[in-house]
Specification:
alpha+beta; SSo0622-like fold; five-stranded antiparallel sheet; four-stranded antiparallel sheet; 28% strand
Length: 194
Amino acid sequence: MKTKFELQKENALGKLNKALEEGLVDEVMVPILSDINSRETYYTTSSCAGRITLFQDVGSRYDNDFLARWHSPPETNEVLEKVADIAKKPPAGIVWFRQEPAILHVVSPDLEGAVRILNIALRCGFKRSGIQVLKPGRFMVELCGTERLDVPVMQNGKLLVGYDYIEHLVGFGKEKLGTSRRKLEMFADELKGL
């Protein structure tokens, strides 16, 4: 008979396989997810390799919207064209240029296993990482980088910055995304010694 942890892992892997089939998993994450999920005492629940977005914030959690998302470093022209398109039909609220770090959730049935993953994450530079005790026998490690940009570029249809500044934001965002990816590579290498 399967343990509760084994059933939870089976359920999580079913969701992951469906997401993989639908192309919803960042390619950069696939080897890391495969490595972790191949281990008897771990499984992953969610992941993102980092992204750049244009995000509409209207002040209501339920009405906010992603206007554009790039999980790979975008070309500067792509972002500028998207901002120009948004400006033609300006949305209400604030449009943010965001660069978000890599994030990964790993579940372990015991604290010792969770601490091992956490220590690897911290060594690789995932400074905003920690362990949450979800229930007895279920410890979740959240790996989260610190590379982040949140810059308002438009408010109620008015462009707040020039296109030249947005070019700089894209450059900064790509640089931070690169840092986040390098940390993921280090994490993948460190996992081999687990």
